[in-house]
Structure formats: C-alpha cells, structure tokens
Amino acid sequence: MEQVLQVFADGTAVITGAGSGIGEGLARVAARLGMNVVLADIAIDRAQAVADKIVAAGGKALAVKTDVTQVADLEALADAAYDTYGEVTLAINNAGIETLGYSWELSDEAWDRSIDINIRGVVHGSRVFARRMIAAGTKGHIANVASIGALGMMPTQTAYIMAKHAVLSFTECLFLEMELANAPIQVSVVVPAPVKSRIFDDAATAQGSDLVSRQRAKMQAMLRESGLTPEQAGEAILNGLATGDFWVSTDAGTTAFMARRRADYLAHQANPTLAEEARALVE
User: Which residues are part of the catalytic machinery?
Assistant: First the structure.
C-alpha cells in the first residue's frame, strides 16, 4: 500500500469504461488513494452514479460522457481532465465489450462495434494521452486493459479474443516506442482473469442461437462463482502499475500458466486446440 500511495496519491487518473466492472473498481480504488478521478463512459448515468458515490465518500471525481470510438470524444475527455485537475498521471484504456456467436453469424455492426471499441478505443486513447504526457515531460502511466484471453483462443468469442490479442501487441510496441523516444511514460498491459461484471449481460450476440444462450449463461455463472470483485481487481491492478511492471495481472498464477501454454503452442507450431476448461464453456 505504501508504494502505490507514493506513486499515485494526489495524482489524476482517467479511466474509460468507468461506469461498471473493472473500470468502476479502478475508479473507486484510485479515489481512495487520494487521486482525482475522471470517469469516462458512454453510459454517462452509470459513470455519474459512481462519481457521485466517490464524492460522497470525500473523494474527487468527474464523469465525462465519452464514446471511445470517436477520437474527438477522447480529445474532449483529455481537455476536461487537464482543465479540471491539471496533469494526468495515469490513463487507463479499459472500455471494452464482449461478443458471442460464430464469426459468420455475427452482424456486420457487431463486428465493427467490437473492433471500434476494443481496438480503436485503446489505440486512440493511448495516442491522445501519450502526446500530452510527453509534452508535459513528467512521469506518466498508460495502461491498456487486455484480457487473459490475449494469451489464448476461444471460439464464439472470436471478435473479443482477436481484439485483446491486438491490444497486447499494440501495447508491447508502444512500450518500445516510449523507450526509443526516451519518454518518461510507463506503459503496461493489464491481463485480468475473471472479474464480476456485466460484460456478458451487455454482450452483442448472434441472434437465435441456442449455443450463444448456453454460453452466456455459463460465462455469467463463472464470473459470479469465481470472479474477483471489481474493487479487488482494481487494487491488484493499481498495485501492479505502481511497481512499474509491464505485465499487470489480477491472478499471477493464471497469467503464468496461460503464458507458458501459449509459448508451448507457438514453439511447436501446433494446430489450434480448445483447452478443456474452455470446452466446458461452449459445449
């Protein structure tokens, strides 16, 4: 706790997708650390409700309606953060959505929305805040939320898994770019294991599929039974960011297991295989 306080206390955090789930947990924990918190979400009612609770508890919070698929909205979010609180210490690109269904059965709109939110939102959110942090010349932190799924594969969650692989790859390259530019910006990728959230409640789905209905129910049950609470996830993530780690996890053992299995799969150039624990969620 002492280290995370030293790194983040009195700073300003901007968190996308902060109206629920991991984003809400991050916002609440950051506020308890003494940070000014800017909560960005397209569902402004959710973000405002979280901000109101933070303020009622004695913290500082600002809710900003933000569609992360629109670069102009991300620029406006940055303007609001800097105009209200000054320099941004920590930018967390967390907003993301799930999709469920066979790739060919999902609508064009569902595919485009997944790509726009899960990939473009992270890329452009990183770019917008990177420019301002670099211009300030002081220590800053950019964290992009991928998923443990970025180290694996899963049919019928294809759009989501593909996007999280892309987030991991982008964040790796951004880390190297900051080193090359000698910029004082710490870049991290967050690979959370299951967290209790509404992500499967809000998931876009292929219509009329019994498989999708069963999978949604199984995934929701899995989050209820074994997922961390959003605030537990927020604490683990902020502690990891405070140590300066690139890889930030909510469950180090699961991340290490998935990484080893991915490395083995790539080293052997094996055919894609559905892991037993994943098979149970789609059959």
Answer: 160
